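Subject: Protein record for review, amino acid sequence with backbone structure tokens
Why sent: The fold of this protein is of interest and is recorded here as tokens.
Enclosed: The protein record, placed directly beneath this head.
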Amino acid sequence: MKDKNLAQINGKTTLIGLLASPIGHSMTPAMHNLGYTISGLNYAYLAFDVGRKDLCASVEGMKALGAAGFNVSMPNKIAILQYLDELDDSARLARASNTVVHQDGKLIGYNTDGLGYVMNLKEQAVPLEGIKVTLVGSGGVAAPIAIQLAQSGIKELSVFARQDSLFANAEDNVSFINREMKAFGVTATVFPFEDKTALRKEISESAILTNATSLGMKPHDESSILDGMLDVLRADLTVSDVVYNPMKTKLLAQAEAAGATAINGLGMVLWQGALAYKLFTGEDMPVEQIREIMFGCK
């Protein structure tokens, strides 16, 4: 059933794609194509291994081919902004885009990552009101998560980022939240990930620890943001990972062993995909059927 719609491609099929590198691990094409099959929509979702070097040419190609739109993932979520004609507030606030809609000759950028992440937490009945969150990451998925969390009732946000070329992104995100999002009453602070003393303290005061890095995903599947400091884990901590392949990362295995609540990125990828699906097709994604068919869970 998963490939039925691809077997029915014809001269009226509309293209949608994914531009990312590496691409082989992605479940997104199967998820969208299954949705088209279930809903009887004449679309085909294809994956293209595209990094920053070929991003400009690939974007122009998707536009010239008349694609309805495309998703972008690592390492393109920030770089894509320079090639877009307009930004929805979701992408403007996050300063990153994972969903691009081709409409009336224009490329319009959206970001469904942050809302997809928060929807996943809510689906798991994780309370957000008045809590403190520690977020590790500074790339294209960390920013929308930080921005959406700041709008979701939390009180404090501590962001940890490696002191490399992307550290400035984390500083900018925190500055933006403190400067432009005062109405939400959130205090945000940035720390170097290398400062383990600060990381221990912030996690000890937090209700949620979120990994928004690629640690845990191949080829980094033997690594965890908590390697060497597992004593920070506790039973009343929720540990959330944006990685969904593997479904149980090393971090989540560590969390489970300590009795903490562990939430993988599957729900996030489903809900951010559902939001993108709606933007591309105008139809609701059959999320529950996809969840059951692809992942064997209801």
Q: What stands out?
A: The chain has a mean pLDDT of 94.
